[in-house]
Amino acid sequence: MSAEKNLKSRVSVALATWAKTSSAHIEVFSKNNGTINFQQRYVFGELSNGIRVVQLPGVKDNSYPPQKKSFSMIKFMYDFYINK
How many domains does the chain have? Predict the structure, then answer.
């Protein structure tokens, strides 16, 4: 999870350290940029290094503590990965 302003730097550091030796599937969760529509619950983007960015609906980037972002991320994982 990251704020949009920190996405590139945090992902770069992760890829240079623990993620380069990991075989894990990596996705980054961030705020909704406002392009979401009613047919599409989640908006997906991609950083230049191929990491997928999941923009969560109704999540403000600067709210603290980040409970809504955390619970929205768990909901996303349930929706997309429960049967895998």
Answer: 1
